[in-house]
Amino acid sequence: MFSVPQTCLGLVVFVGALVASAASNDAVSTWDFEISERYDWEVSKRYEPNWASLDKRPLPSWYDEAKIGIFLHWGVFSVPSYEGAWLWYWWKGPQPRLSIVEFMARNYKPDFTYGDFAPQFTAEFYQPARWADIFKASGAKYVVLTTKHHEGFCNWPTKYSWNWNSMDVGPKRDLVGDLVTALRDKGLKFGAYHSLFEFFHPLYLQDKKNNFTTQDFVRTKTLPELYELVNTYKPEVIWSDGDWEAPDTYWNSTEFLAWLYNDSPVKDVVVTNDRWGAGCTCHHGGYLTCQDKYNPKKKQNRKFEDSTTMDKYAWTHRRNMRLSDVHSMEQVVATIAEIVSCGGNLLINVGPTKDGVIIPIFEERLRQMGEWLGVNGEGIYKTRPWTFVNDSLTEDVWFTSKSSASRDTTVYAILLTWPTTSVLTLGRPSPTADTKVTLLGYSGEFKWAHHTGSGIDIALPKIPFNKLPCKWGWVFKLTMISN
């Protein structure tokens, strides 16, 4: 059995689960600093290694237009596939969880170490082309893979994690590189999740003991890995995590980002999140995540992303997951509508098995998501938040918008519940004599009238259920309105 002695824990490192820094809504500043305004900053300008300069970088337009991404939590933690990616920490950390300690005692021999899981991370059924096919069919435009979580195991043949990477032990292959090739064959963009810290790495623990006045871990592990990832795989997204215990000055975050934006091979296309040091989350970076499963349900002034899970209770594959633990398509569609209406992207997570399989229930949900977006994508992709995010008279209605070259506004009303009457009343849109109302995926125009006071009454014909364009949410398109 492969095992990692205590003295070698610097070569082995961490389990994680996207623990985000807590955020407050008032910390979220400006989409009035909107993408259009951010492009006023000269593209050719070199960025200085400080937040005042870095935060002025325009967000590359592809990211805002994409709206939907897939998140993948995959690593050695996928072998026990129990509770989540923090199992190692909850088992051997300073405050162990009794349920985890008892689980390990019941199921593994007394001298079993976390490192003994690594050879069982086999990925023998891993077919990156099949994964890419599923992700393409989902309607997602980018995919973010955990290249390294808090356990420290690297899913690529790095030079900086000897015998604790996917080429040296376990799969014996470059999991990152194989997926990158498959994604780009499908026209999808690649994102690299990377944890700055590692649970039990001795150099990190020593730096922490020194109150982060030393940077041995950063200089020999964290930064070399980040530069290697960028130069080797050229990711369009750097999804940083594991930052919260130390300030950004310890991580040398601004120096890395200045290089990334100025001189890296992805300088013109890369986007970054906000997890670059204690106090940075929801304040600094390319876009804001604020906290895991961040769904503010009100319009945000700055671009944000909701990273959330298909499994309600974990980021990783769980062997004991029940069907009721998986979000329904009604819930998935509602989340898409809420997030995009408020100005965000949805990054929805599925956890592959240790064998390299996207389990059938996750595949079904992703393909259903693509089926819905295939009909209603016009009201999602490349849209902007409208003046109002939801309706004043009818519940479960969320709005997005587009503006034409003539500055005419098209509004998309996303209905999460089909009306029980023959009239759909919307209080927010102000129609004009030229207004047209259609339903995405359905032929013909709908008759309408001005609603008493304000708003619009849309007449609904008797449409048989099997003639509706989709099953879970419906998007009405309103053109030539006055607001």
Automatic annotation (TrEMBL):
UniProt keywords, alphabetically: Glycosidase, Hydrolase, Signal
The residues covered by the Glycoside hydrolase family 29 N-terminal domain are 42-378
UniProt EC number? 3.2.1.51
Coiled coil ranges: none
Q: Which residues form the Alpha-L-fucosidase C-terminal domain?
A: 390-479
Q: Which PANTHER family match?
A: ALPHA-L-FUCOSIDASE, ALPHA-L-FUCOSIDASE-RELATED
Protein name from the UniProt record: alpha-L-fucosidase
Native source organism of the sequence: Aplysia californica
Q: What is the lineage of its organism?
A: Eukaryota, Metazoa, Spiralia, Lophotrochozoa, Mollusca
